[in-house]
Amino acid sequence: MTTRRNFLQQAGLLTAGIIIAPSCMMSKAESNKNIGIQLYTLREELPKDAKGVIGKVAQAGYKEVETFGYSSEGGFFGMKPTEFADLLKQHELKASSGHFGFDPYISGENEDLLKSYIDAAKAVDMKYIIVPYLGENLRQSAADYQRVAERLTKAAEQCKAAGLQLGYHNHDFEFKKFGDTTGYEILLKETDPDLVVFEADLYWVVRAGLDPVALFKDHPGRFKLWHVKDMDKANPKINTEIGSGSVNFKEIFANAEVAGVEHYIVEQENFSLDPFESIAQSHTYLKENLL
């Protein structure tokens, strides 16, 4: 099985999640437009038939996708940004956000990388450019996270000037303690809320032993995107279809307004069902039981 860690190491690509607007602010019909899927979920199927996969995502009920793995050479899944944008439009889909590999930019090795991401994001009419992962060499100390926060701020300023917004997606390593704080707390406190938003991967927050609702209440309005990803009841190291696992989504979704969430993005990294049946099941549960 291809794990995310192995995939990133082998392909130099980076990560994933789901999107929706709180039901208290819009009707179900309207909120359904913001249910998205992180395409990393279908990373095994995309290389075989990327255009067919996008069509099946739309058939499953999704209205948004979140990309991953963009490069200037390979584009989006082998398509140039304009070609990918046309494909999405054909299926009445939007790509409101994308995961882009930021390690070379954060380390200062490639200052020009961000411009290529901004150009690609604008070509497909994205709103958010998401930092999906930090290499281990960038996160060994509190000082490292402070440097990351500085680099995020610089990138966010450039994104804002281009009409975009920068976001940060968590795993569980950000919650490692450094004295009386964590890497995640440093990122939250040392970035401007008007510049940097956060994509809360709910599975990883829970797996780190934390309460997502408490996190939202401590930092209200910072979490504009959520990755809705469930935890297998028997094995917490793997995912399952939304509503089938152990994450208390009903309590979490009851606090959507506190979080400030605008997009709910489904993600799943492993399957016991056919992947397309799985994503349809997760979409149905999310739409009918959580929104």
UniProtKB/TrEMBL annotation:
<dbReference type="Pfam" id="PF01261">
    <property type="entry name" value="AP_endonuc_2"/>
</dbReference>
<keyword id="KW-0413">Isomerase</keyword>
<dbReference type="InterPro" id="IPR006311">
    <property type="entry name" value="TAT_signal"/>
</dbReference>
<dbReference type="InterPro" id="IPR050312">
    <property type="entry name" value="IolE/XylAMocC-like"/>
</dbReference>
<dbReference type="GO" id="GO:0016853">
    <property type="term" value="F:isomerase activity"/>
</dbReference>
<protein>
    <submittedName>
        <fullName>Sugar phosphate isomerase/epimerase</fullName>
    </submittedName>
</protein>
<feature type="domain" description="Xylose isomerase-like TIM barrel">
    <location>
        <begin position="56"/>
        <end position="288"/>
    </location>
</feature>
<dbReference type="InterPro" id="IPR013022">
    <property type="entry name" value="Xyl_isomerase-like_TIM-brl"/>
</dbReference>
<dbReference type="InterPro" id="IPR036237">
    <property type="entry name" value="Xyl_isomerase-like_sf"/>
</dbReference>
